[in-house]
Structure formats: C-alpha cells, structure tokens
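step 4 of 6: structure.
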Amino acid sequence: MPAPITVRTAVQTPAENRLTAAFLAVALVALFGGAVTGLLQALDHAGVHVPGQGVFVKSYYQSVSLHGVLNVLVWTTFFISGFMPFLMVRALGRPLASLKLGWLTFCLMLGGLVIAAIPLVGNAATVMFTFYPPLKAHAAFYIGLTLVVVGTWLVTLNMALTLRRWWADNPGRRTPLAAFMSMITFAMWTIASLGLAAEMLFMLIPWSLGWVGGTDPLLARVLFWFTGHPIVYFWLLPAYTSWYTLMPRQAGGRLFSDPLARASFILFLVLSTPLGFHHQFTDPGIHQGWKLVHAFLTFAVFFPSLLTFFNIVASLENGARARGGRGWFAWFAKLPWGDPSVAAQVGAMLTFAFGGIGGLVNASFSLNLLVHNTAWIPGHLHLTVGTAVTLSFMGITYWLVPALRGRALWSRRMALAQVWLWLGGMLIFSNAMHRLGLMGMPRRTHISAAPYMTAEWKALLPLVGIGGTLLFISAMLYFLNLALTVTASRRPCAGEVLFAEALSGPDHAPVIFDRWKPWLVLAFALIALAYGPSLVQLAATTPLDVPGLRVW
Amino acid sequence: MAKSGTTVYLYELAWILPSIAIPVGMLAALTVTAFGAGIHLPSVAGRVSPTRVADTAPFDHPGVVQVGPGRYEARMTSQIWAYAPNEIRVPAGSTVTFIATSKDVIHGLFIPGANVNAMLLPGQITRVTAHFEKPGEYPLLCHEYCGIAHHTMWARVIVEPRS
C-alpha cells in the first residue's frame, strides 16, 4: 500500500502572502524591462535598428546595462527574497518571526532599487551589472545597490529567527527540507555578499562621492568576484529547492533521497564562495598558482550539482513510473507535460545540463583563454540564469501567482506555448552566441557597428535576432497570462503548497547534516585558505590611485 | 513501488562514486594538458603608476623590439579607444611577448587567432606570450566594455612571410 504523500501546511498565512506578492511584483516589472532591452540588443546584432529606441536608451551600452541589472540583479534578488521566506513559512507551518521586519526589508530594498535606478535610467550608470571601476557611475547607483544587499541580510535574519523558534518548539526533529534549503541559500549568500559589501563600502562609494581620489580595478574585481560567482548559486539554489521539494510531487512521485539532497546543499554552503578567481584567469596581478587552486575548487562544486541532477531525475522517474511509465528512457514521456509548471522546470533543468558543461569549459584554466569575454559567455549565462533560473522561476509563478491571488491560472495552453517558445528561442540564441564566441566575437560590444566585423560572424548574427525575438514573444505571453490571472480569472484556486515526501526520508540522514556550526566553520576556513593570502597582500599593498572616468 | 532504504542507498552510492571520479578525471586531464602544452595564464608581472604610464619604461616608447633570434617584445599602452602601437609587424615563426597596460579604464587584449586573451588594468602590467607561425593579419581586439566607442577599439598584428 503506498504511503500518503500529501503534506498539507496547517496555517494559512495571508499576511505573508501579501509580502511575497509585493516582492514578486517588483521582480516581474524588472523582468519586463529586461526583456524589452534584450530584444533591442538581439535585433541590433542582426542588423535591425528599432526606430525610436533613443527615447528610452541613449546607447547600445545603456541598453545592455539595463538588461543586465534588471534581469540578473533585480528580477532574481526580489523573486528569491519573496519566495524563500514564503516556502519556509509553509514548510514550518508557522508565521514569519517578524512581519514588520519583513515589510521594513521590502521598503529598504525597494528604496535602494529606486535610488540605483535613477542614474541607471538617466544614463549616469552605464557600467554594466559588473560595474568595474574605474568606469565611474553616479554614487547613487552604488549606494542604492548596497541598500538592496543590506536588505537581503535582513531576509536572512528574519528567516534565521523563524527557524530558531521552530527548533525551540520541535527539539530533536529534523528541519523540513524546504526550510533547510531556504536557510542554506540565504546563509551562503550572506557570507558570499561580504566581498561586494566591502567593495561598495570601502572603495566605490567613498570614491564616487569624491571622498577619496582614486580606486584600484584589480582589488575591486577580486572583491566583486568573491560575490560574483556565488551569486550564481544564490540564483540557482531557489530553483533547486523547487526541483527537490515541490517538483517531484507535481510530477506525481516522491523525492528520491532527502539525505543526498541535504548533503548537496551543505556542499553548496561550503564550496560556493572560494572559487571566484576562475572569473579572473586572464587578469594580471593574481598569481597563476592561486588561479589553479580556484580552478580545482570550481570542479569540486560540480560534485553537488551532479548529485542534484541524479536525485531530481530519479525523483522524476519515480513520478513517471507511478503514472505508468516504462523502459529505460521511455518513462520520460509519461511526465505530466500538460502542467506548465512541470514542463518549465524540467526544460530548465535539462537546459542547465548544457549550461553546466559549458561552465566547466569556462572554469578550465587553459580552455578559458578561448572563451573569456567572448559571446560564448553571455551564451552560457543565458542557459544558466536565463533559463535554468528564469524559466524555473516562471514555472514556479504558474502556481505561486494563482496561490497568492486565490484564482486559477488564466490559460494553461498559453503557459505551455510560452515554455516551449522559451526553450526553442533559447536553443537558437544560445547556440549562435556560443559559436560566435568560439569564432572570437567579443561580448558586450556594439558589434553591428564594429569595424572588425567578419563575414562568418555576419552569417550567424541573424540567428541571435531570431532567438531573441522568440524569447521576447515568450516573455510577453508570460506577462499577459499573469496579468489576466490577477485581473480577469474567476475560477478559484485553493492555494495549497504541497511538498513532496521522500523515498529515503530525512531520518536516514546523519545527525551532522542538521548541525550548522561545523559547516559554517568549514566554509569560512576554505574561504580563508583560497582567498586569504591574495586578498591580504592586495589590500595591504595596493595604492588607491586610479582616478576614474565617465566615458559613455 | 516503494523502494527500501537499502536500495536507495545503493543507487546513491552508484551515482556518488562516478560523480567524484568525473570531475577528478577532468581536472587531471586539464592539469596535464595545460602544463604539458606549456600554457600560461597572465600572472604577477608588477605594477605601474596609472597616472604616469607615459613616463615609465618601457611604456614611454611603445613599439616592437627584437630581443633575440625570432623573439620580440610588443610594448603596448591602451587608452580610450586605441592602442599604441596600433600595428605590430613580425616575421612568421616569431614568438612575441606582449607587455601592456592601460592609461585610463580597463581594456582587453584579445587576439582570437593566437590564443592571446588578457585584461589590461590601470595600475597593473600584463605580460603574455604567443607564437605566430602562419603569415597573415591577426585582429587584436578590446573585449572589455570601456565606454561609448568600445567597439571601435582594435589593432592588428601583421605576420609577414619569412623572406
């Protein structure tokens, strides 16, 4: 007799729902802006200049800056800051420790976003989402982004307080998996964001305000990439959390192994940060030996990703077989492909397999020389944050928005069309970008106006335009569907969150998996080992003597 | 349908072991090929005062200098949106060491046809070596966003047939 697989949360939490909805609304507005600017750039690559765009963007480079900041910084961060506390509250079956703190956090992050957005929209911060000095943006850009980061620390605090209360009331019980994963995500991010915070507070903000005369690009890049690689895991882990704790149930089965899932997240907590030099393989001033150490650690973090891939696919197989699937591979067809939330997330996960393989090329010390700063990199990034993360988040909103609104999704068919359009468009776009990168086409470059354009690039560039257009149409279908769900849908939706049970449950996990101190100590120790010598040496000996320019 | 804990455990183990073996194997292959092929990444090559590049040797005289039989040094500076020199001529079969820096913002030093891919940071000296066997014209591109005319910043390496 099969065991019951429904876990229902006891409490309804409309107050938390409103907070999550507020974060989600900001995230979606950002994604909309990101989609529009993305279309302009893709068409420009294909040689099509959209008339009238000068009203909104002063240059190709302002468009790219908006696209990057809105998509990878705002859409992700606001979505995650709304979604993870929501999941934790549902998984623990108790309210957030402080709803007041939750709203304060939201106001701080929104305020920071507005402060940063003013110079960005006004062409005073056309410095890309990586904002490498000595390109010098208006101080408000740096101050605003810093406030957003401080806001995410308050999310961590609120979640930690919530979890502590649950521990106090439930001594000896295993933390529910979704709450555990949400906490790990924000703990990892809080540690990783220290690099960015230091760059902002000690370098960029005082320099852009004119309090100090100069800065140093190398030290700034080291601090940026201290945060800049783990931020990818900050985007990915919420998608993983959905794949682990919700998707198996949506697919009609159970999570294969809860202990293995915990192990992989603990490894992400420990290994996500000490590997940022693999973004700086081509930088002078960092010793080659340390670059190799970071390459090793990057391959180490591939291990928990492989564990995740296995665990999720095994869980999906469990669901598909329960639905009558047979054979070695034929079961795959029996997944509930008619559910847009599942189709989106399974598609996102399979796309990520290619993103992961490309990522290994990027991290491969010498192979990196072929692809660094070429079109290959945005090709890669659109598979990871642009699909594994974004399409998963879209899939999540296909149940989350109806749950928050209490109304069913407007159109399941429109949602399915959106998912397949995204996958098809991304296949075309990303494949072309990867190939252009291997042909030596640089990234973040107004390539249609470049004097060194080659015939072989020109032959492939229309595919970038076609892929980008399909992605844009997909995004518009997505927004239309959500807008109609919120305003026009009349069918009710119960809004339950159903977590998956596991074949091998949490009680099979060693006790040490539920302890925090040893893993946090290990995480800090590895960071000290991998970054300590280079960072101390750089911070101690680098004069801040590069003045900086605004040249856009 | 329900699998026992032991079966799950065996499946886990059957996946964990190759999951360790795959990255370890790739890493070994990578290390061997990188060092076997003698590929070097930019490393520590010293600092230069970013505001006094034009007065500091060797950047006070940008250009190509022969330093040995078949060996050349290209001493380069970059600034928005040009390189000095913007043309480097060497005979086929030359080994060229690029010694370069930036006078203002971050630029790139990217020669797609010759495995040269490095960043030029104000304050740092970048040193990379490449071998040019085939005659022809190799575009040298700036591949780091450096302002409004970034896409116009490039130079050429011209490899002349051996006489």
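step 5 of 6: annotate
 - Chain A touches chain B through 74 residues (CB under 8 Å).
 - The radius of gyration of chain A is 23 Å.
step 6 of 6: archive
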